[in-house]
Amino acid sequence: MHQVLDQAILDLVHAEAIPDQAVLGQRLTDLGLEVSQPSLSRRLRKLNIVKRDGRYRHDPSEAPLKPSVRIFPAPPNLLILKTQPGFAQAVGAVLDDKPLTAQVGTVAGDDTVMVVLGDPSRMDAAIEEGRRRFGAVVVSATS
Hints:
The protein is of the alpha+beta class. The protein has five helices and seven strands. The strands form two sheets. It has a five-stranded mixed beta sheet. The chain is elongated, with a radius of gyration of 16 Å.
């Protein structure tokens, strides 16, 4: 659970101007992740997230290098994985080495990996596997 929560926190502070813990807690709740304020404070410290210029920012000077991954389903048979610039090739290589359920190929750019599924009926299984493997946040078309 901590890995999913940590990844969601990193994704949110990277993508949005989060001004305080109340807003961050609400955004996590919106994603279906419940966390208490004391636990959120501990996670922020663990992740080296600091408040600068009125918003939370990730300070990677002490943190290990690990890409955040967001999965955007593109039915009927595509998954789009978004990550920070420069990480897509590494994520693509991991997927080529150990494919997701029904994966038949990938195309990786700088911050985006397109995953092609051979069997569209296996999309939910591939999404869940990607979520578990990368601690990815799944973003629906309505998000």
